[in-house]
Amino acid sequence: MNTLAAFRSLLPRRRVLAAAGLMVLAGLPGLAQAQADKWPQRTVRLVVPFPAGGATDITARVLGEQLSKRLGQPFVVDNRGGAGGITGTDAVAKAAPDGHTLLVSLSTSMLINQYLYTKMPYNPMTDLALISQLAKAPVVLAVHPSVPAKTGPELLAWVKANKGKVAYGSWGVGSYAHLGGAAMSLAQDADMSHVAYRGEALMLQDLIGGQIQMAFTSALSAKPHADAGKLRLVGATGDTRMGVLPNLPTLAEQGLKDDAYRIVGFVGLGGPAKLPPALIERISTEVQAVMALPEVRERIVSMGFTPVGGTPAQFAAVYKRDAPIWEKLVRQSGAKAD
User: Fold this and answer.
1) Beta-ladder partners of 78
2) CA dist., res. 31 & res. 27, Å (int)
Protein backbone atom coordinates (compact mmCIF):
# COMPACT_ATOMS: atom_id res chain seq x y z
CA MET A 1 0.00 0.00 0.00
CA ASN A 2 1.46 3.36 -1.01
CA THR A 3 1.57 6.31 1.37
CA LEU A 4 -1.49 8.03 -0.11
CA ALA A 5 -3.59 4.89 0.15
CA ALA A 6 -2.46 4.30 3.72
CA PHE A 7 -3.43 7.89 4.65
CA ARG A 8 -6.87 7.45 3.05
CA SER A 9 -7.44 4.22 5.00
CA LEU A 10 -6.90 6.12 8.22
CA LEU A 11 -9.48 8.82 7.48
CA PRO A 12 -12.54 6.97 8.77
CA ARG A 13 -10.73 6.10 12.01
CA ARG A 14 -9.58 9.69 12.43
CA ARG A 15 -13.12 10.94 11.89
CA VAL A 16 -14.42 8.52 14.53
CA LEU A 17 -11.78 9.66 17.03
CA ALA A 18 -12.49 13.33 16.29
CA ALA A 19 -16.21 12.78 16.72
CA ALA A 20 -15.58 10.99 20.01
CA GLY A 21 -13.42 13.87 21.16
CA LEU A 22 -16.15 16.35 20.33
CA MET A 23 -18.66 14.27 22.26
CA VAL A 24 -16.40 14.31 25.33
CA LEU A 25 -15.96 18.07 25.07
CA ALA A 26 -19.69 18.54 24.65
CA GLY A 27 -20.27 16.54 27.79
CA LEU A 28 -17.89 18.57 29.96
CA PRO A 29 -20.40 21.29 30.90
CA GLY A 30 -22.88 18.64 31.94
CA LEU A 31 -20.20 16.85 33.96
CA ALA A 32 -19.21 20.09 35.68
CA GLN A 33 -22.82 20.82 36.52
CA ALA A 34 -23.29 17.31 37.93
CA GLN A 35 -20.24 17.79 40.16
CA ALA A 36 -21.58 21.15 41.31
CA ASP A 37 -24.96 19.61 42.10
CA LYS A 38 -23.27 16.99 44.33
CA TRP A 39 -21.26 19.55 46.31
CA PRO A 40 -20.27 19.16 49.09
CA GLN A 41 -19.33 15.50 49.25
CA ARG A 42 -17.22 15.72 52.43
CA THR A 43 -16.03 18.20 55.05
CA VAL A 44 -15.47 21.73 53.76
CA ARG A 45 -12.65 23.78 55.29
CA LEU A 46 -13.27 27.50 55.65
CA VAL A 47 -9.78 28.94 55.96
CA VAL A 48 -9.61 32.18 57.94
CA PRO A 49 -6.10 33.68 57.57
CA PHE A 50 -6.29 35.38 60.97
CA PRO A 51 -6.34 34.17 64.59
CA ALA A 52 -9.55 32.90 66.17
CA GLY A 53 -11.86 35.28 67.98
CA GLY A 54 -11.97 38.22 65.57
CA ALA A 55 -14.97 39.39 63.60
CA THR A 56 -13.85 37.60 60.43
CA ASP A 57 -13.49 34.35 62.35
CA ILE A 58 -16.94 34.77 63.89
CA THR A 59 -18.44 35.48 60.46
CA ALA A 60 -16.90 32.27 59.11
CA ARG A 61 -18.27 30.24 62.01
CA VAL A 62 -21.77 31.66 61.62
CA LEU A 63 -21.66 30.94 57.89
CA GLY A 64 -20.25 27.44 58.38
CA GLU A 65 -22.83 26.50 60.99
CA GLN A 66 -25.72 27.44 58.72
CA LEU A 67 -24.21 25.79 55.63
CA SER A 68 -23.72 22.57 57.62
CA LYS A 69 -27.39 22.57 58.58
CA ARG A 70 -28.44 23.31 55.03
CA LEU A 71 -26.18 20.89 53.16
CA GLY A 72 -25.59 18.05 55.60
CA GLN A 73 -21.79 18.13 55.58
CA PRO A 74 -19.43 19.61 58.19
CA PHE A 75 -18.05 23.09 57.51
CA VAL A 76 -15.05 23.62 59.80
CA VAL A 77 -13.10 26.83 60.35
CA ASP A 78 -9.34 26.52 59.91
CA ASN A 79 -7.51 29.55 61.39
CA ARG A 80 -4.20 30.05 59.61
CA GLY A 81 -2.90 33.40 60.77
CA GLY A 82 0.40 34.93 59.74
CA ALA A 83 2.01 37.51 57.44
CA GLY A 84 -1.00 39.82 57.30
CA GLY A 85 -3.30 37.07 56.04
CA ILE A 86 -0.92 35.89 53.32
CA THR A 87 -0.20 32.44 54.80
CA GLY A 88 -3.79 31.23 54.93
CA THR A 89 -4.82 32.88 51.68
CA ASP A 90 -1.92 31.24 49.85
CA ALA A 91 -3.00 27.83 51.19
CA VAL A 92 -6.42 28.31 49.59
CA ALA A 93 -4.97 29.64 46.32
CA LYS A 94 -2.95 26.42 46.01
CA ALA A 95 -5.71 24.04 47.17
CA ALA A 96 -7.55 21.59 44.91
CA PRO A 97 -10.32 23.45 43.04
CA ASP A 98 -13.10 21.15 44.17
CA GLY A 99 -14.98 23.46 46.55
CA HIS A 100 -13.84 21.72 49.73
CA THR A 101 -11.25 24.36 50.68
CA LEU A 102 -12.58 27.91 50.73
CA LEU A 103 -11.39 31.26 52.04
CA VAL A 104 -13.18 33.66 54.38
CA SER A 105 -11.04 36.77 54.57
CA LEU A 106 -10.84 40.53 54.50
CA SER A 107 -9.96 42.83 51.63
CA THR A 108 -6.48 42.94 53.22
CA SER A 109 -5.35 39.53 51.99
CA MET A 110 -7.66 39.32 48.99
CA LEU A 111 -6.89 42.74 47.52
CA ILE A 112 -4.75 45.28 49.42
CA ASN A 113 -1.66 43.19 50.19
CA GLN A 114 -0.66 43.08 46.53
CA TYR A 115 0.07 46.80 46.74
CA LEU A 116 1.95 46.52 50.05
CA TYR A 117 4.25 43.60 49.28
CA THR A 118 6.70 43.52 46.38
CA LYS A 119 6.80 39.71 46.57
CA MET A 120 3.84 37.47 47.36
CA PRO A 121 3.38 33.71 46.93
CA TYR A 122 0.06 34.26 45.17
CA ASN A 123 -1.51 36.88 42.92
CA PRO A 124 -5.01 37.71 44.21
CA MET A 125 -6.04 38.92 40.74
CA THR A 126 -5.28 35.59 39.05
CA ASP A 127 -5.03 32.92 41.77
CA LEU A 128 -8.33 33.46 43.61
CA ALA A 129 -11.95 32.99 42.55
CA LEU A 130 -14.39 35.54 43.96
CA ILE A 131 -17.49 33.69 45.17
CA SER A 132 -19.45 36.14 47.32
CA GLN A 133 -18.99 39.37 49.22
CA LEU A 134 -20.31 38.38 52.62
CA ALA A 135 -20.30 41.81 54.21
CA LYS A 136 -19.06 45.37 54.07
CA ALA A 137 -16.60 46.26 56.83
CA PRO A 138 -16.80 49.97 57.64
CA VAL A 139 -14.91 51.43 60.60
CA VAL A 140 -15.41 54.38 62.92
CA LEU A 141 -13.18 57.39 63.49
CA ALA A 142 -12.59 57.71 67.24
CA VAL A 143 -10.83 60.44 69.20
CA HIS A 144 -9.67 60.88 72.78
CA PRO A 145 -12.19 62.96 74.79
CA SER A 146 -9.59 65.73 75.15
CA VAL A 147 -9.82 66.42 71.40
CA PRO A 148 -12.28 69.31 71.01
CA ALA A 149 -13.64 68.17 67.63
CA LYS A 150 -17.05 66.47 67.60
CA THR A 151 -17.61 66.21 63.85
CA GLY A 152 -15.55 65.26 60.83
CA PRO A 153 -15.11 68.82 59.54
CA GLU A 154 -14.16 70.03 63.03
CA LEU A 155 -11.54 67.27 63.30
CA LEU A 156 -10.02 68.17 59.93
CA ALA A 157 -9.74 71.80 61.01
CA TRP A 158 -8.22 70.78 64.35
CA VAL A 159 -5.49 68.52 62.91
CA LYS A 160 -4.65 71.22 60.35
CA ALA A 161 -4.34 73.84 63.11
CA ASN A 162 -2.14 71.50 65.17
CA LYS A 163 0.34 70.58 62.47
CA GLY A 164 2.98 68.13 63.68
CA LYS A 165 1.35 67.72 67.10
CA VAL A 166 -1.23 64.97 66.43
CA ALA A 167 -0.60 61.21 66.53
CA TYR A 168 -2.93 58.59 65.10
CA GLY A 169 -2.79 54.86 65.64
CA SER A 170 -3.32 51.76 63.54
CA TRP A 171 -3.31 48.00 64.04
CA GLY A 172 -0.48 47.65 61.55
CA VAL A 173 1.31 49.15 58.57
CA GLY A 174 -0.95 49.07 55.53
CA SER A 175 -4.15 48.57 57.52
CA TYR A 176 -7.07 50.88 56.76
CA ALA A 177 -6.39 52.66 60.06
CA HIS A 178 -2.96 53.53 58.69
CA LEU A 179 -4.06 54.37 55.15
CA GLY A 180 -7.05 56.48 56.28
CA GLY A 181 -4.97 58.44 58.78
CA ALA A 182 -2.21 59.00 56.24
CA ALA A 183 -4.73 60.28 53.67
CA MET A 184 -6.16 62.72 56.21
CA SER A 185 -2.71 63.95 57.20
CA LEU A 186 -1.73 64.50 53.58
CA ALA A 187 -4.98 66.25 52.60
CA GLN A 188 -4.80 68.60 55.59
CA ASP A 189 -1.02 69.08 55.47
CA ALA A 190 -1.15 68.09 59.14
CA ASP A 191 2.12 66.15 59.39
CA MET A 192 0.54 63.69 61.82
CA SER A 193 2.62 60.92 63.39
CA HIS A 194 1.62 57.32 62.68
CA VAL A 195 1.95 54.80 65.52
CA ALA A 196 1.56 51.18 64.47
CA TYR A 197 0.53 48.61 67.08
CA ARG A 198 0.45 44.83 67.20
CA GLY A 199 -3.29 44.65 67.07
CA GLU A 200 -6.33 46.80 67.69
CA ALA A 201 -6.59 46.19 71.44
CA LEU A 202 -3.18 47.74 72.15
CA MET A 203 -4.02 50.69 69.90
CA LEU A 204 -7.25 51.35 71.79
CA GLN A 205 -5.44 51.18 75.13
CA ASP A 206 -3.19 54.04 74.10
CA LEU A 207 -6.07 55.99 72.55
CA ILE A 208 -8.02 55.75 75.81
CA GLY A 209 -4.88 56.69 77.72
CA GLY A 210 -4.25 59.76 75.55
CA GLN A 211 -0.90 58.60 74.12
CA ILE A 212 -2.45 59.04 70.66
CA GLN A 213 -5.29 61.40 69.78
CA MET A 214 -7.25 59.60 67.08
CA ALA A 215 -7.65 56.33 65.23
CA PHE A 216 -9.89 54.53 62.79
CA THR A 217 -11.13 51.40 64.56
CA SER A 218 -13.85 48.76 64.43
CA ALA A 219 -17.27 49.54 65.85
CA LEU A 220 -17.20 46.22 67.73
CA SER A 221 -14.13 47.31 69.69
CA ALA A 222 -14.84 51.02 70.04
CA LYS A 223 -18.53 51.05 70.99
CA PRO A 224 -18.16 49.85 74.62
CA HIS A 225 -15.48 52.49 75.29
CA ALA A 226 -17.56 55.20 73.63
CA ASP A 227 -20.61 54.18 75.68
CA ALA A 228 -18.46 54.52 78.81
CA GLY A 229 -17.27 57.99 77.80
CA LYS A 230 -13.66 56.92 77.32
CA LEU A 231 -13.72 57.69 73.58
CA ARG A 232 -15.73 59.93 71.27
CA LEU A 233 -16.93 58.64 67.91
CA VAL A 234 -16.74 61.29 65.19
CA GLY A 235 -18.16 59.38 62.23
CA ALA A 236 -18.16 56.17 60.21
CA THR A 237 -16.62 55.33 56.86
CA GLY A 238 -18.73 54.32 53.88
CA ASP A 239 -21.91 55.73 52.38
CA THR A 240 -24.45 54.17 54.74
CA ARG A 241 -24.74 54.21 58.51
CA MET A 242 -23.86 51.15 60.55
CA GLY A 243 -26.75 49.10 61.85
CA VAL A 244 -25.01 48.79 65.22
CA LEU A 245 -24.54 52.60 65.43
CA PRO A 246 -27.58 54.05 63.64
CA ASN A 247 -27.20 57.50 65.22
CA LEU A 248 -23.58 57.93 64.14
CA PRO A 249 -23.46 59.83 60.82
CA THR A 250 -21.02 58.76 58.16
CA LEU A 251 -18.10 61.03 57.38
CA ALA A 252 -19.53 61.36 53.87
CA GLU A 253 -22.79 62.69 55.34
CA GLN A 254 -20.72 65.30 57.10
CA GLY A 255 -19.16 66.49 53.86
CA LEU A 256 -16.00 64.39 53.77
CA LYS A 257 -16.43 63.09 50.23
CA ASP A 258 -12.89 61.86 49.52
CA ASP A 259 -12.53 58.20 48.51
CA ALA A 260 -10.42 57.64 51.64
CA TYR A 261 -13.52 58.14 53.82
CA ARG A 262 -16.10 56.50 51.56
CA ILE A 263 -14.33 53.26 50.78
CA VAL A 264 -14.89 50.31 53.09
CA GLY A 265 -13.23 46.94 53.35
CA PHE A 266 -15.07 43.69 52.71
CA VAL A 267 -15.40 40.25 54.20
CA GLY A 268 -15.36 37.91 51.24
CA LEU A 269 -15.66 34.25 50.33
CA GLY A 270 -13.14 33.01 47.82
CA GLY A 271 -11.55 29.86 46.51
CA PRO A 272 -8.85 28.62 44.14
CA ALA A 273 -8.93 30.34 40.76
CA LYS A 274 -9.62 27.11 38.85
CA LEU A 275 -12.93 26.40 40.55
CA PRO A 276 -15.38 25.46 37.77
CA PRO A 277 -17.91 28.24 37.05
CA ALA A 278 -20.82 25.91 37.80
CA LEU A 279 -19.38 25.14 41.22
CA ILE A 280 -18.77 28.83 41.95
CA GLU A 281 -22.41 29.55 41.15
CA ARG A 282 -23.62 26.63 43.30
CA ILE A 283 -21.58 27.72 46.33
CA SER A 284 -22.61 31.34 45.87
CA THR A 285 -26.29 30.41 45.65
CA GLU A 286 -26.09 28.47 48.93
CA VAL A 287 -24.20 31.32 50.62
CA GLN A 288 -26.74 33.88 49.44
CA ALA A 289 -29.52 31.81 50.98
CA VAL A 290 -27.68 31.66 54.31
CA MET A 291 -26.84 35.37 54.28
CA ALA A 292 -30.52 36.17 53.81
CA LEU A 293 -31.46 34.49 57.11
CA PRO A 294 -32.57 37.06 59.72
CA GLU A 295 -30.48 35.50 62.49
CA VAL A 296 -27.36 35.59 60.33
CA ARG A 297 -27.89 39.19 59.29
CA GLU A 298 -28.51 40.19 62.91
CA ARG A 299 -25.23 38.60 64.01
CA ILE A 300 -23.28 40.27 61.20
CA VAL A 301 -24.76 43.67 62.06
CA SER A 302 -23.90 43.21 65.75
CA MET A 303 -20.22 43.06 64.80
CA GLY A 304 -20.35 46.39 63.00
CA PHE A 305 -20.52 44.88 59.53
CA THR A 306 -23.18 45.35 56.87
CA PRO A 307 -24.40 41.98 55.49
CA VAL A 308 -24.30 41.59 51.71
CA GLY A 309 -24.24 38.00 50.41
CA GLY A 310 -23.89 38.99 46.74
CA THR A 311 -23.30 37.09 43.52
CA PRO A 312 -19.84 36.41 42.04
CA ALA A 313 -20.46 39.12 39.41
CA GLN A 314 -21.42 41.66 42.06
CA PHE A 315 -18.34 40.79 44.11
CA ALA A 316 -16.13 41.15 41.02
CA ALA A 317 -17.63 44.59 40.30
CA VAL A 318 -16.87 45.79 43.85
CA TYR A 319 -13.34 44.41 43.58
CA LYS A 320 -12.73 46.14 40.26
CA ARG A 321 -14.13 49.45 41.54
CA ASP A 322 -12.17 49.46 44.80
CA ALA A 323 -8.79 48.15 43.63
CA PRO A 324 -7.47 51.44 42.17
CA ILE A 325 -8.61 53.34 45.28
CA TRP A 326 -6.73 50.99 47.60
CA GLU A 327 -3.70 51.14 45.32
CA LYS A 328 -3.69 54.95 45.51
CA LEU A 329 -4.12 54.98 49.30
CA VAL A 330 -1.20 52.58 49.74
CA ARG A 331 1.01 54.49 47.31
CA GLN A 332 0.43 57.92 48.85
CA SER A 333 0.91 56.55 52.39
CA GLY A 334 4.31 55.12 51.49
CA ALA A 335 3.35 51.90 53.30
CA LYS A 336 5.52 48.84 52.70
CA ALA A 337 5.16 45.54 54.50
CA ASP A 338 8.07 43.48 53.10
Assistant:
1) 47
2) 6
Cα dihedral 47, 50, 53, 56 sign: negative
What CATH number does domain 140-262 carry, 3.40.190.10, 3.40.50.1980, 2.120.10.80, 3.40.50.360? 3.40.190.10
pLDDT (tens digit, 9 = 90+) per residue, 42-94? 999 999 999 898 889 999 999 999 999 999 999 999 999 888 899 999 999 99
H/E stretch holding 172 reads none
Beta strands 140-143 and 193-196: pairing type? Answer: unpaired
- Sheet hosting strand 44-48, strand order edge to edge: 75-79, 44-48, 101-106, 265-272, 128-137, 306-307
Please report which helix (H) or strand (E) contains residue 306, including its range: strand 306-307
Query: What CATH code would you report for 40-137+264-333?
Result: 3.40.190.150
Residue 262: Cβ-neighbour burial (10 angstroms; 0-12, 13-18, 19+)? middle
CA atoms in the 13 A half-sphere facing the CB of 305? 26
How far is Cα 111 from Cα 183, in angstroms, rounded to an integer?
19
Q: How many CA atoms lie less than 13 Å away from 166 in the CB half-sphere?
A: 29
Residue range 225-271, pLDDT digits in tens: 999 999 999 999 999 999 999 999 999 999 999 999 999 999 999 99
* Domain-wise residue ranges, the chain: 40-137+264-333, 140-262
Alpha helices, DSSP H only, in 96-252?
Answer: 107, 113-116, 124-127, 152-161, 176-188, 200-209, 219-227
Nearest to 122 by CA among 325, 268, 272, 269: 272
